[in-house]
Amino acid sequence: MINISRTGILAQDELGDISRVNKQALFDAVKRLPEFIIGIKARESHSVVVDNGIKPLLAAKSYQALLGHMPIMVHVGANPPDLKDILQAMSKGDVLTHAYNGKENGMLDKDGNVFDYVYDAYDRGVIFDVGHGTDSFNFRTAQISRDLGLAPKSLSTDIYHRNRENGPVYDMATTMEKMLAIGYTLPEVVRMVTFAPADNFNLLQKGRLRPGADGDLTIFRTTHDDKVLTDSNGFEMIGHEQIIPTHAIVAGEVFNLEEK
After folding, report:
1. What is the pLDDT along the chain (260 residues), one digit of tens a residue?
2. How far is CA 215 from the centre of its chain?
3. Spatial CA neighbour of 182 closest among 224, 231, 233
4. Residue 74 has what DSSP assignment?
5. Residue 4 contacts by C-beta under 8 Å, 6 or more apart in sequence?
6. What are phi and psi of 254, to 5 degrees?
7. Cis-peptide into 168, omega within 30 deg
8. Residue among 51, 41, 26 nearest 72 (CA)
C-alpha cells in the first residue's frame, strides 16, 4: 500500500503537515508501479495527523474514486480524530486495521458495549482487520466483538523488529493462536490469513489453492499444549492449541523451518 503522505512514516507525524498529501506524486507512483501498489494507506491517529483530523482520509477517498476504487486501509489509534468520524468516512471494501485495540478511541464504551456507529460500519461492508502490533490488540475487545458477531475478516500482525523480538506479537503463528484462544475455529483463522487478505486487495492469484493460482504455502502442525498468550495491554490468556509451522513453499521452492 502507498502511504497518503509522500514521506511515508519516516516522520511519525507524516500527516501533521497537510502539504505532504500530494495527489500528483501518489498518482505518478501508482501509474509507474501498477502491479506493485495494491492499495492506499492512511494513518488516522492523533500523533500522525496532529490537528488535521480526517482531512487526509478524505483526500484518500477522493483519490480512491479517481483510481477505480483502489482499497484504502486506515490505521486507527488515539484520538482526535474520533473513531466515529473515521468510520463514517469509510466505505464498503475499505479496511480498518488495529480494529480490536483496547484504547479509549476503540470500538467499546467504558461498560464494554459496542458503539452503534461500529455496527453501522461493519454492516455496510467496512472490513475489520486485526493488525495486532505492539499496542493494538486487546483480548477483551476481541472476545466481546466475537460474541456480538463482529468477527475480523482478516488477521494481520503489524510485525516489526521490536514486537517480534520482545512481543507481544512474536510471529503470525502466535497471533493465530490468540484467535483460537478466544474461540475461533482453526478453519476460520486459516481463512483470515489466506483468502481474506488476498480478497481485501483483489489479489486473485493469492490466498487460494486452485489451478493457475500461485502455489505459496505454509505447512504447519498443531499440538494440544498450554501456552501463555499476552495481548498489547499485558493481559494474559492460556491457549490450549499451538500452531507450529514446519515448511514454507514459495514459487515451488521448499523451505524447512526450525520449530519453535
Report:
1. 999 999 988 888 999 999 999 999 999 999 999 999 999 999 999 999 999 999 999 999 999 999 987 999 999 999 999 999 999 999 999 999 999 999 999 999 999 999 999 999 999 999 999 999 999 999 999 999 999 999 999 999 999 999 999 999 999 999 999 999 999 999 999 999 999 999 999 999 999 988 888 989 999 999 999 999 999 999 999 999 999 999 999 988 999 987 54
2. 23
3. 231
4. E
5. 15, 21, 26, 40, 41, 42, 56, 57, 59, 60, 63
6. -95, 130
7. yes
8. 41
Give the residue ranges of DSSP H helices in the chain: 23-32, 46-49, 55-66, 83-88, 116-123, 139-147, 161-165, 172-181, 186-193, 195-200
- Of 142, 129, 128, the closest CA to residue 181 belongs to 142
**Domains in the chain: ranges and CATH:** 71-207 (3.20.20.140)
The β-bridge relationship of strands 242-250 and 253-256 is antiparallel
DSSP codes of every residue in 189-257: HHHHHTHHHHHHTT-TTSSS-STTS---EEEEEEE---EEEE-TTS-EEEES-EEEEEEEEETTEEEE-
Report which residue type is found at 146.
Answer: R
Closest CA to 242 of 165, 173, 184: 173
